[in-house]
Amino acid sequence: MDSFAFPMDCVLVQKDGKLIKEEYYLPYHAGKMHRMFSIAKSYTSLAIGALICEEKLRMEDHIADYFPECVSTQIQDDSYAGLRNMTIRDMLMMRTCFAQTTYKKNPKENWVESFFRTMPDHKPGMIFQYDTSAALVLAALVNRLSGKNVLDYLRDVFLNEIGFSKDAYFMKDPFDADDGGSGMMAYPTDLLVTGKFLLAAYRQNLKECYPHVVTGRDGSTYNEAFFHKYEDYIKEALSFHTSTVHNGKTRSEKEGYGYMFWMMPEGGRMMYGMGGQYLLIYPKQNLIAVVTADAQSEGGGTQQILDWVERTFLRDGGTSFRFVEKDLQSDALQPADSDNASIASLFGEYETEDTFAFITGFTLDEKEIRLRTAKGDYRFPYSVGGYSNPETVRDGLCCCGKAIMQPDGSLYLCVRLAGESVGMLHIMICKKDQDFLLYLRKVAEYVLPEFNGFFDARFIS
Fold first, then answer.
1. Domain locations in the chain?
2. Does the model's pTM come out above 0.85?
3. How many CA atoms lie within 13 A of 331 on its CB side?
4. How far apart are CA 409 and CA 433, in angstroms?
């Protein structure tokens, strides 16, 4: 990375318990804190997990019940049912009922309150959609239930005992709430010591690695029983729960999501903050890497960082790095053996629940998905395990598609557009109990302008 004058700020790498690389780059040095942006979300998740282990909170609790003063009287209306039914688990998985971060719609409104006064876009618990306001509200919940901010609460739980700094903090939003979504200020070494703790918890050996933390000390609130439950939560938080293949911005962001932790190739897990802030944990390789950078102006910058870490520290010094044409697609895009049977379980006809929606319904069979609209039907062919043969399907639009069943039971259809219109149409069909959701995201100039958004649907036949 140095040879490209890449805007790196710090690199720390620990392998088999030994620090094998420590570099800082101007204007940063070891004694200077860095803005960690969305890494804050992972710490918020760790605080929520501790509250759950203390039995002050449950995964299936409804978030709206904890903020009655913020909830508009409109929430009793059916159009707000998604907000009324949204659980803590939904928020941790980024499966809220919103299409985007709510406070960005009206930044001048109280950011926490706006979460409860924004009209839902779809049912919760259905599909991953990155939502920083979810973490902001969960941080407010930590404060409400513990009487402390996220980092101070976690200091009492374990941070004070593992060498986490005393002066790291969360910035405040414009309304004086902790910015639990993107406002963390900390030292790179704070991430490193956190990574070591998380790796031990993921391997279910906290007691062996941190006996002084787990067994408690004089005056400690926590004990071995608590930490047994807590390492179970951490392992769950660092495990796959929801597919991100439909809207991940980089290859590594398509691997999936846990409870505010990202999945990675090579079995890795990551905390990720905008611009190239990373805590990377590779349990199989017993490796932890911390990177801080400012890649906001670098095209594809964050993926460059991850590729560099992989080829430098995971791949025999880079000699067997897997960045070749056949591996350009995310592992999450590779078909599973059960794809055919799983996809067949979704075959049938559906209609959307919003009478005024552009997509009025769709039909899925073994060859294509047919979307019904006020302008007529649009059909998109697909194959399993590879792209279908190109076809001109309507109005000169040439396309081919492939279908891949995701581990969470959702179906991802990637449709490539060719000819005068070059681009992609990303389609997801998600199911939760008896509810269905159709998601469309079009990345192409001019064509299919209405093929974006969420459409709640029901199975007809």
1. 2-318, 339-459
2. yes
3. 12
4. 11
